[in-house]
Write a structure and sequence with these properties.
The protein is an alpha+beta fold. It contains 3 helices and 4 strands.
């Protein structure tokens, strides 16, 4: 298995992260959801997703060459509650 490096998402990577999320929705392996449902989920407000990735605590997984492999973000909703978003 190749090494995976974890760290914060850089602002200039937000568009790439959205592309990665959309590719995962549309082409993820072994999806239990029909193509029509995945297509509906992929119809997102791209600017909103970029804003959310930039404003939340977003972490990125990269290979050793720096290629973005995945993202996950979270934000605080209340004093002791967090919301996982855009995994």
């Amino acid at each position: 298995m190749n090494d995976v490096l974890l760290g914060g998402l850089n602002r200039h990577e937000a568009d790439l992260a959205v592309d990665l999320c959309l590719d995962s929705i549309l082409n993820g392996p072994d999806s239990k959801y029909p193509a029509l449902q995945r297509t509906k989920w992929a119809n997102v407000d791209r600017a909103d997703w970029v804003r959310r990735l930039a404003s939340q605590h977003t972490h990125a997984a990269r290979d050793t060459q720096g290629t973005l492999l995945g993202v996950g973000s979270w934000c605080e909703k209340a004093r002791s509650t967090a919301w996982l978003d855009l995994l």
